[in-house]
Amino acid sequence: MKNLLRAFCIAFSMYSSIPMPQFKWEKEDMKYSICFFPLIGIVIGAICYGWCLLVRAFDISLLASTLLFFVIPIAVTGGIHVDGFMDCSDVFSSYREKEKKLEILKDPHIGAFAVIKLVVLCAVYISALSVIIAMGNGFDERYYAVLCFGFVLSRALSGIAVVSFPCAKSEGSLYTFAEGSDKKRCLSILVKEAAIAALIMAAYGRIGGIVAIIAALISFVYYNFKAKKELGGITGDTAGWFVCLCETMIAVAVCICAMISL
């Protein structure tokens, strides 16, 4: 039980800005830490749900309701996934050899393509959210459930990648998590977590939920292809890139379904 609590704290310390007890990380404590990663999605979803209730109760403007919904995941995670998205945007646009691309990932400076692609991503995500909120008159339980559990699904899929995809380098935080985990058991748990999130999305969202799940799975397959092609495997930055991409695709899928009333 003690090791599981420590694994929980490690996952939240690494992938969220939520304060956690500080202690020396031991290898035994990290065996199942990646399994707690999707729980951060539950926290994000719960806060977003509370915000949607406030939007409906107080008739908050579309602009304010959309922007704060957009900011909540970034605030909870501390922007760690956005950082990975920006780093990978620079790397994927460099068209250099794999070794050079891995070096670029270590560069703390922000390139032009990182800014450009982040602006595009934010524009697409915010636009999708605004349509979803507007179509649901501030709150639609079906669409919310899909978005909420989409935060869980994206992290469960990211965790599955950590324990099943090859790592691009034998160092870094992701490599530490991958090598320190009980891969077989973690994979089994993460697949179950992804399945539960997907079932809830399908049950509440019906066709819209199913379309969103398909969009998430497409992004997952693309993630595997892109990471292997560009870097020879995944890194902590590509994991962040995937979470951003996956959640944006889910939002776009829900947006399209809302527009045609699925």
Give the fraction of residues assigned to helices. over 70%
Tertiary shape: globular
The secondary-structure element order is: HHHHHHHHHHH
Task: Work out the count of structural domains.
Answer: 1
Largest sheet: none
In DSSP terms (H or I, runs of 4 or more residues), the helix count works out at: 11
SSE order and pairing:
Elements lengths: L1 H14 L21 H22 L3 H16 L2 H13 L5 H9 L5 H24 L5 H24 L8 H8 L2 H23 L1 H25 L4 H24 L3
Helix pairs in contact: 2-3, 2-7, 3-6, 4-5, 4-6, 4-11, 6-11, 7-9, 7-10, 7-11, 9-10, 10-11
Textual characterization of the structure:
The protein is globular and about 50 Å long. It is an all-alpha fold. It has one domain (40-259). 77% of the residues lie in helices and 0% in strands.
Short descriptors:
single chain; 262 residues; mainly alpha; 11 helices; globular
Brief description of this entry?
The chain is an all-alpha fold. The protein has helices spanning 2-15, 37-58, 62-77, 80-92, 98-106, 112-135, 141-164, 173-180, 183-205, 207-231, 236-259.
